Amino acid sequence: MPEHTKRALGRGRGSTSVPDDEAFGLVVALARLARRGARPSHLALALLGEGHPVPEETVRDAFGKAVRGLSARLGEEGPEEGENEEEWAERVADEVVASGQRVRLVPARVRRIDEGIARDMRDRGVVWPPPELAGLDANPEPPSLSGGEVTTAAVTTVLRGGAAVTPQGIGDVLRAVQRTGWGNPGASLVEYTVDDVPDAAQEVFLPDGGMSTVPDGDVRGALLSLAEAATLEDLRDAWEVGGATRGWALDLCARVETELEAGELGDATLTWLMGSAFMSGLVLMAQVGDRHWSPQTGRRTP
User: Fold this and answer.
1) How is residue 178 annotated by DSSP?
2) Spatial separation of the C-alpha atoms in residues 158 and 103, rounded to whole Å
3) Angstrom distance (rounded) from CA 161 to CA 82
4) Among 86, 146, 151, 285, which residue carries the largest CB count within 10 Å?
5) Mind listing the pLDDT tens digit for each residue in 5-50?
């Protein structure tokens, strides 16, 4: 809370204090947002997003706590004696998978919407999924990773950074989260980047392995540095974008479901289908399937 402004009354009458002009709005917002189970760090970011004055140290600590929470789930110990970083990352990934944690590939709600669109299209006599997409996919035998394998890839990338990223690895994950029966031109482009444009690709995908645009090493350190170095305006924008993105994803799901129920596919379904072949579809699935969304604040745990 902002400190009160103190002033002397004079002539031995002591002093008085006047609350900061912004304090009233802050108190009202706290009363509205605070509830049982609400974490102080979540409340701080919710207040920040609404434009209330939140101490800079509190904001940075809230973002840092999220990163440190990730550390707790992955373990803070580094490689054991005689173990290199690749072996260490694989061991930690195996432990995460063995604990029952899995990346959610295609959320059930997304799958139901896709199935509804497919039924509608076939009822109209349309060949579905579009065969043209399969024709743009150059991989004759695309792999199909399980949720556990994608989890392993995610943990390994967090712990090793760009050193763990390869064109085939990116393609494998893109295929794991694609819609059933669809070709995947995007994954194909990544998988064959080195063959298609070898000179340009070597600037990104290094000859000895790894990806130059992602720093090598534990990503958690880079995230902590970002939380400490980014401006408050950038941190506020990041928080707001997270909330707006989830709102967009859930709204699009609801609008497509309404069109399916009415039997009249329209603009929402077109937006959905366009996203199925582009990055916006991946963002949508990540938001709909996010298990770490904070029910206390209506925002994702950062």
Assistant:
1) S
2) 14
3) 21
4) 285
5) 666 666 666 666 655 666 666 776 777 777 777 778 888 888 888 8
